[in-house]
Amino acid sequence: MEANLAKYQAFVATVEHGSFTKAAEELHYSQSGVSRMVSDLEQEWSVNLLERHKGGVRLTTDGAKILPYARSLCEEYEKLLMAVDEVRGLQSGLIRIATFSSGASQWLPNIIKDFQAAYPNIAYEILLGDYTEIERWIMEGRVDCGFIPLPVHESLETVLLERDQMMAVVPVDHPLAGERAFPLEALEDEPFMILEKGAGAEVDAILRGRGVKPRVNFTTWDDYAIMAMVEKGLGISILTEMIMRRCPYNVVALPLDKPVYRDIALAFRGKDRSSLALQRFIEYLPHR
Questions:
Q1: Long-range pairs for 63-72 at CB < 8 Å and ≥24 separation?
Q2: How does residue 61 score in pLDDT terms, banded at 50, 70 and 90?
Q3: CA angle 209, 102, 119 (to 5 degrees)
Q4: DSSP-assigned states of every residue in 180-244
Q5: How far, in Å, are 12, 53, 154, 266 from residue 18 at the CA level?
Q6: What pLDDT is stored for residue 167 in this prediction?
Q7: Which terminal residue of the chain, N or C, has fewer Cβ atoms less than 10 Å from its own Cβ?
Q8: DSSP label at 150?
Q9: Model's pTM, two decimal places?
């Protein structure tokens, strides 16, 4: 039975990652081992589950019909292991966490440090992604939980962690650097830098809501690249207060003239679908 479950897990992980190689990394098998297990399923069932191509794999029509059942079996097996863990007193387990970069640096180290003191045998898998990816990974079961701004899909449960303010980031010699707040309309007067994903969507919404159209001349995934460019006087930006707490650059962060906040939460699929390890982990969150 467990040999078959390993094949189902290989199939599900390959679909979630889009390649045998990445699935093998998650499951701690060889790439050839994962490929062989999926091929075994296809031979046993006389069904083509995946289309193989140079860039990875893609579900066939038949594979798409079978995937929900294979995923359900894997989830039920995880529930079985969860019950065993509970009986054994949480002596082992794995928590898979999705997060964005500032969430990883601000909360995770302290939470894991405190949690590990009580549960030293729990292992962790941390995935970095943008907000859309994180929400999808949680809903698909690719991860157990994720740090993400509210609101989230109605099927998910959340624990509110922090209210994070959006800040204008300017060079220290900027004419408005000494002001108490930054007038958003001033963004139209000089080069603007924006995150390509993640908080960039929130900044876009702020700008659209105020009818402000800045001259965007630099886009990136990296908050710290933006800080470095601002320090050199190459433009200004809007970043979150949370990421600015550990800013290594000589810049000034100002609240907007009309304050804007985002609520950050830990999202998960519900306590009835959460491992005992995750349930205990949630108890260690610095929630509001």
A1: 63/15, 67/11, 67/12, 67/15, 70/8, 70/11, 70/12, 71/12, 71/141
A2: very high
A3: 135
A4: SSB-GGGGGGSEEEEESSTHHHHHHHHHHHHT---EEEEEES-HHHHHHHHHTTS-EEEEEHHHH
A5: 10, 10, 26, 26
A6: 93
A7: N
A8: S
A9: 0.66
